[in-house]
Automatic annotation (TrEMBL):
Superkingdom as given in the UniProt entry: Bacteria
Annotated organism of origin: Flammeovirga agarivorans
Domain VOC residues, every copy: 2-130
Name of the molecule in the record: VOC family protein
SUPFAM superfamilies cross-referenced by the UniProt entry: Glyoxalase/Bleomycin resistance protein/Dihydroxybiphenyl dioxygenase
The organism's taxonomic lineage, starting at the top: Bacteria, Pseudomonadati, Bacteroidota, Cytophagia, Cytophagales
Length: 131
């Protein structure tokens, strides 16, 4: 088995696309209308364009249980997902300059350094550097 696609819930796909491409530097891989104003909209890392895709899933808009789950995670301050980075401190500084808000500043925890930011789409995202 291989991981090819992971989804993250977003209420507004266009807003999410803007954030994830302009701030996080992901690139759009697939963008297909699927009806109801929704899109099959995936992104990939610039460093791994044939790697796993991130689906910007409009579930909170169309499926109430997803909205409830997403809000519960956000209200608890829990990250929805995690992205690996080479250097958490550098990435933190780059994103802060772009106006990204962090709920957890870079901190070492055992064999990892991490930070958590708000993706403006209803999710906290954790970035991690393995030390």
């Amino acid at each position: 088995m291989k991981i090819k696609l992971v989804s993250i819930p977003v209420g507004d796909q266009e807003k999410a696309l803007e954030f994830y491409t302009s701030k996080l530097n992901f690139i759009k891989k697939i963008d297909i209308p699927v009806g109801g104003g929704n899109r099959w909209l995936t992104l990939v890392s610039k460093e791994e364009q044939d790697g796993p895709q991130l689906l910007l899933e409009p579930a909170p808009k169309d499926f109430e249980p997803s909205k409830v789950y997403q809000k519960a995670l956000f209200d608890a301050g829990l990250p929805y997902t995690q992205f690996d980075v080479e250097d958490v401190q550098s990435e933190y500084e780059r994103l802060v300059k772009l106006g990204v808000e962090f709920s957890v500043k870079p901190i070492e925890m055992g064999t990892a350094k991490l930070a958590v930011f708000n993706d403006t789409c209803g999710n906290y995202i954790q970035i991690v550097e393995v030390l």
